[in-house]
Design goal:
Elements (H helix, E strand, L loop, with lengths): L4 H11 L11 E2 L2 H10 L7 E5 L5 H8 L3 E6 L2 H14 L4 E2 L3 E3 L5 E7 L15 E5 L5 H11 L5 E7 H8 L9 H9 E9 L4 E2 L6 E8 L9 H12 L6 H4 L1 H4 L2 H10 L13 H9 L27
Parallel strand pairs: 2-3, 2-7, 3-6, 7-8
Antiparallel strand pairs: 1-10, 4-5, 5-6, 8-11, 9-11
Helix pairs in contact: 2-3, 5-7, 8-12
Length: 314
């Protein structure tokens, strides 16, 4: 049922598709890697899974092979139109509609949503219980944070991202790469890196390694502050990494003195820097700072850290 490297290239050629850096497209061409992702995601038969950036369908087919029902969100309209036909060709007896695929029993197994994942706020079909995706290189962090915020039904996820991005997502306080993506991910879930994936399993071949990150959703830290207040505090704490927290938070608090008072009340050292404070500490701090009404849109660079790039160019 899975796509081989030759089949991937054949499908792309027949549709006139060439992967683009603009859309962060690097297609998985190795069936062994696909099965590793599905296995580590612990996908079960009949489970509802959401996939972002299915591309030519390599991972989609792996999820379907495991028995999952898939909602695939694809920004490229050419690839979105191609996906149902590809699945039907690879699974004899299945039937493709315009944006759905039915198996031989007439059950809807695949639904395709043609949209930018950052703009999606509803998904068709039953609520998903898992997110499994080879995330587009150029928007991996904002897409992940968007789906963590908007779709609370999925309790676990497995995403493939660039190795450097994986390190940021799972970093602990005190780490050199601990920053906005680390804290905001920790607000929603426990994240851990499970495997490194070499560049040769992709087409085109990137010049960086990738990694698999497992996410298990958990409740946010107990706090009277809203998510918006906490995330505004996170953004301010990491806006200028070299600054001590009392200086970094001066604008948000109203003054350096007010910031120092809030930090002390939260049990934090005003001379510390953001990279030494965990999500629970930042949540306590947010309770003691002036309220914030809104954040930048989730898809914007500012929403996951000024000076904290979520990805690097492949």
């Amino acid at each position: 049922m899975l796509l081989t490297p030759a089949r991937v290239r054949e499908l792309a050629a027949s549709a006139g598709v060439r992967p683009t850096k603009t859309l962060g497209q690097n297609f998985v061409i190795d069936p062994g890697t696909v099965r590793k992702i599905v296995r580590q995601a612990e996908v079960s038969s009949g489970e509802q899974v959401v996939e972002i950036g299915p591309g030519l369908g390599s991972l989609t087919l792996g999820l379907l092979e495991a028995g999952a029902d898939v909602v695939a969100v694809e920004i490229d309209p050419v690839l979105a139109r191609l996906l149902p036909a590809t699945v039907a060709q690879q699974a004899p007896g299945w039937q493709a509609g315009e944006d759905v695929v039915l198996d031989s029993d007439g059950r809807v197994r695949l639904r395709v949503v043609t949209a930018d994942a950052l703009d999606v706020d509803t998904l068709p079909g039953p609520p998903s219980t898992a997110l499994v995706a080879n995330l587009p290189y150029n928007v991996a962090v904002p897409v992940l944070l968007t789906f963590l915020e908007r779709f609370t039904s999925w309790r676990r996820g497995l995403v493939m991202v660039q190795s450097e991005v994986a390190d940021r997502l799972v970093a602990a306080p005190g780490s050199r790469v601990y920053g906005v993506p680390s804290v905001k991910t920790a607000w929603y879930a426990q994240a851990r890196r499970t495997a490194t994936v070499g560049p040769r399993v992709f087409w085109p071949v990137p010049n960086v390694d990738s990694a698999l990150v497992r996410l298990d959703r958990r409740d946010p830290p107990p706090t009277s502050a809203t998510r918006v207040q906490v995330f505004a505090t996170v953004d301010a704490a990491f806006a200028q990494r070299r600054k001590m927290l009392r200086s970094a938070l001066a604008t948000l608090a109203g003054s350096g003195e007010a910031a120092a008072e809030a930090l002390t009340a939260a049990g934090l050292d005003p001379t510390d820097r953001g990279e030494r404070v965990d999500v629970a500490g930042l949540a306590r701090l947010a309770e003691r700072l002036p309220p914030v009404e809104h954040l930048p849109p989730l898809g914007s660079r500012a929403s996951h850290g000024r000076g904290e790039p979520g990805t690097v160019a492949p």
